[in-house]
């Protein structure tokens, strides 16, 4: 089978047009991101609709977060072993099944099962990014990755106004049926467009590592996501944090001793990969802080002094242009990456985000100011999000692309969880009573902007280290250092007779 310039192999037979491949994979990511946020509008009404408490209803969000965090590294490793197309279809099938269950749900346990299955769709993002490298010509990979990374924000941006409309005018069960229909359509398209993977890892699946990492992520993310409800010094929060750290202390040396680990820590510890992953945590924090605070500024009552008093639907419509920015920025980000390199693009994106957050501390008095501030942050975020997967792909063996991007995506999710926890803590500490109800104080919300600016600067420091570590680059580009390094890490394709 002929070898591609990037060290992979061309698939047998005719290849689908690049534009069609990018479109289908981007739709996979968009649907996955859409179902993450589409239930936000109905969350305040769930206690009444499902006859449950407010605290129990919050598990509708937490369950999806946990399922996505657990599924991402596991599915990404399986994609490297058994094929990216196969795992894309598995994720879509589970996500559609969850959506159907949710569409028929009449109780909280049914909704939680539905949301857990939907959460598996989070793994579509890193697997789709890895598939871009296999499926696309070299010159089309940057724009494909940029658009796939942008789907995280495109789906989230579309989900807010859609959910507001469905909840206000139609039946809340449509919040599940819409993703079910969209996911089913994309599922039908995937086998027609994507080819079976011909470059795979020959390692065994690390079941012990997967179970332990699932425990680590579940415990730590529970502490972060529920700490605000339980109390940050409560026994439940501290117990989850301690359990997660204890399991992590067992998991790390186990991965180093295992011949075929779930996460190759030696690859992850390569200086360039490590710095990109560090930047991912801070960029994820800064990205999600933008969404959290913008939503609150738009929807808080005007009596708070900073709120604009919009409804959920109105706020969703105001935030919809953010999704458009990510889509428009994808080809521009790809151009910047090609001309300056992904390291410089990441650095520029992080510095832009820091400056935009500083500007947001005085862009909040009118709806248009909040929108402009959010869009400015989104420009930098889209550039950073496009650069990070490209850097990962250029720094790891081609047989490890899905797993490496899975870890990077997971760390971005950790950043978003941290943003949620920090924002909740800052807002709670600065809450004021208006009309007998505790609401966020304006200074507290603006303080989150400064924290996000600091996180963006921290990401910029990591990005600067990435730029200085060019010698570690093993991309398909034909620079002398990279060309010298590439033969040592090229995998041997499995025989065509093996199942795909």
Query: What percentage of residues falls in helices of 4 or more residues?
Result: over 70%
Q: Rounded to an integer, what's the Rg over CA atoms?
A: 22 Å
**How much strand content do the residues show?**
under 5%
The CATH class label of the largest domain is: Mainly Alpha
Physical arrangement of strands within the biggest beta sheet: 1-2
Low-pLDDT regions? 1-13, 471-500
From the 3D coordinates, which CATH architecture of the largest domain would you assign? Up-down Bundle
The SSE order reads: HHHHHHHHHHHHHHHHHEEHH
The CATH topology of the largest domain is Growth Hormone, Chain: A
Provide the residue-averaged pLDDT: 81
Helix/sheet category = mainly alpha
Largest sheet, in brief, is:
2 strands, antiparallel
Q: Give the N-terminus to C-terminus distance in angstroms.
A: 15 Å
User: What form results from the Cα inertia axes?
Assistant: globular
Q: Count of helices?
A: 19
SS elements, strand count = 2
The total number of structural domains is: 3
CATH H-level homologous superfamily name of the largest domain: MFS general substrate transporter like domains
């Amino acid at each position: 089978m002929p070898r591609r310039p990037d060290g992979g192999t061309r698939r047998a037979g005719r290849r689908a047009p690049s534009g069609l491949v990018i479109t289908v994979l981007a739709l996979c990511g968009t649907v996955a991101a859409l179902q993450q946020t589409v239930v936000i509008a109905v969350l305040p009404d769930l206690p009444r609709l499902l006859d449950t408490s407010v605290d129990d209803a919050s598990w509708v969000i937490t369950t999806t977060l946990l399922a996505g965090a657990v599924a991402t590294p596991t599915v990404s490793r399986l994609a490297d072993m058994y094929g990216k197309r196969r795992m894309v279809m598995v994720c879509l099938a589970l996500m559609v099944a969850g959506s159907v269950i949710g569409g028929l749900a009449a109780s909280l346990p049914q909704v939680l099962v539905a949301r857990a299955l939907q959460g598996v769709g989070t793994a579509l993002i890193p697997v789709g990014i890895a598939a871009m490298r296999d499926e696309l010509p070299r010159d089309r990979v940057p724009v494909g990755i940029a658009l796939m990374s942008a789907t995280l924000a495109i789906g989230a941006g579309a989900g807010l106004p859609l959910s507001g409309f469905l909840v206000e005018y139609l039946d809340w069960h449509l919040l599940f049926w819409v993703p079910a229909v969209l996911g089913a359509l994309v599922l039908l398209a995937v086998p027609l467009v994507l080819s079976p993977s011909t470059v795979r890892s020959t390692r065994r699946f690390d079941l012990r590592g997967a179970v332990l990492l699932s425990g680590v992520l579940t415990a730590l993310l529970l502490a972060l996501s529920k700490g605000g409800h339980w109390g940050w010094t409560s026994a439940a929060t501290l117990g989850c944090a301690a359990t997660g750290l204890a399991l992590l202390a067992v998991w790390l040396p186990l991965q180093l001793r295992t011949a075929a680990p779930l996460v190759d820590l030696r690859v992850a510890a390569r200086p360039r990969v490590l710095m990109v992953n560090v930047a991912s945590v801070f960029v994820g924090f800064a990205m999600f802080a933008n969404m959290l605070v913008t939503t609150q500024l738009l929807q808080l009552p005007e009596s708070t002094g900073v709120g604009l008093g919009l409804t959920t639907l109105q706020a969703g419509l105001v935030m919809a242009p953010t999704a458009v920015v990510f889509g428009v920025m994808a080809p521009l980000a790809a151009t910047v990456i090609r001309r300056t390199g992904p390291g410089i693009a990441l650095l520029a994106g992080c510095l832009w985000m820091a400056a935009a957050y500083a500007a947001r501390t005085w862009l909040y008095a009118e709806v248009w100011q909040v929108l402009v501030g959010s869009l400015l942050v989104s420009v930098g975020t889209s550039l950073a999000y496009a650069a990070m997967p490209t850097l990962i792909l250029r720094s790891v063996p081609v047989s490890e692309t899905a797993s490496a991007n899975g870890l990077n995506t997971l760390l971005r999710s950790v950043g978003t969880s941290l943003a949620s926890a920090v924002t909740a803590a800052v807002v709670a500490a600065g809450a004021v009573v208006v009309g007998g109800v505790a609401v966020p104080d304006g200074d507290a919300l603006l303080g989150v902007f400064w924290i996000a600016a600091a996180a963006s600067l921290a990401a910029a420091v990591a990005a600067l280290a990435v730029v200085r570590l060019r010698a570690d680059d093993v991309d398909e580009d034909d620079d002398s250092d990279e060309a010298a390094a590439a033969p040592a890490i090229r995998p041997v394709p499995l025989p065509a007779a093996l199942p795909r």
